[in-house]
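Can you please make up a protein's amino acid sequence together with its fold in token form to help me picture the idea?
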Amino acid sequence: MAEEKEQKRKKSFKESAFVRYFTDLGEALSKGDWAVKSSLIVMGMGFFKRKQIMKGILVTLVEIAYILCFAIFSIPYLAKFSTLGTVQYQDPKINPLTFEVEQFPYDNSFLILIYGITSLFLLFVFLLYYIHNIKRAYAVMCDERDGRHVNSFKQDLREMLGKKFHVTLMSIPTVGVVLMNILPLLVLIAIAFTNYDKNHMPPGALFTWVGFENFTALFGGKLSLTFGYAFRKVLTWTLTWAFLATFTCFIGGILLALLINSEGVKLPKMWRTLFVIAIAVPQFVTLILVRNFFADQGIFNQICQNLGILDLCKSLRLVNPNATFIPFLTDKNWTKVMIILINIWVGIPYQMLIATGVLMNAPKDQIESARIDGASKWQIFWKVIIPYILVVQGPALITDFVRNINNFNVIYLLTQDVYITQDAGMYKSNAKEVDLLVTWLFRLTQEEQNYKMASVIGIIVFVISVVFTLISYSRLMRGGREEDYQI
């Protein structure tokens, strides 16, 4: 009941905040004087009336700058945004009169898409600033009417460098997030609703909007026998890989840390250092070397032949009776197992270091109490140590799972130019049985220039990551166990 009341309270607060945002604007327009209402046309008028000349000049200059930018830059692209261009590219021709090479004007669908989205985003930001300015002008009017102190421009500057300095500092990373994350994400989403591929490649060709055609192609449309089939296979393997890669390294790191730090182990620093060396070596170097070791004609296959392991695998029917090697990285089942095992070798040392640090702060009083109560080592590990580690490392574990969904290096470096798919349905979609969604996306863009389907897959990867993260964090925070371990 308490949780339901809290959720209702938060929901009502959000709804009231949303409604209040517009009711405040309505109040400013209905109760404001002529200067506040004139801010609808000249944004600085409400400040000019209160003799805040510098503020009025600045906001008016921002308004003029945006109007000029919108007229010169945005309108030409927004006018073509609905079609993404209609004028096809033509090769340059020689003017018979001037004998000069002339390039006829043409549309570039990709530039129209990018600049159109940027223009719409800037329009949205300007509207928020426009509304804020009207409400701010009304607030200044109310302060003056009620005899409250109204900050001058210099006082606002001092606040921005004083008690509101955090706002000033956050403006820089906010701009970075917009430019590096939000705008590219919006472009990615938009491309998923176009037919942008190698047959519609700007500037030589135009592409246009196709609605949900790409999504229906992936989830059961006319291409369901290829892309839909490949998507189900790749998605299943992606989630399986992410789960196994995360928890094998997590549990393995904990067990290795407990083993090295146990009383019976000699030279724990030496063992810890040996595993840390595996972290110091760049991952791509390790993966490429391991790929060569486990190649069909690699050194590990030669060792298996000499030791009779190949014959053993034949007798157990793990490989073809006529095989001359073990297909560690060329058979889909062998390759998936090897990918997980190699990832354990690469990932456990890092998890071991984290687990060592966490275990140093393990609740010794609870462990001692469990021992006094007669708990075995396994019960202490499972009932005390694991819950403690999950509370401390829970957020990191969620991050690792999402990172493994997008773990490009391990899959691509181990299988590129080595694994060849035998599945016709996967091959037609430019996918492999060992691909993750992110590596499939990479192949679609780099090898096939199929940007429309790559964008659809990118959206799906984003949705999966966000949904899993939100659900996991909400359950983790709802558990309420963290206060049991607070000092």
User: Anything to note?
Assistant: The radius of gyration is 31 Å. The mean pLDDT is 84.
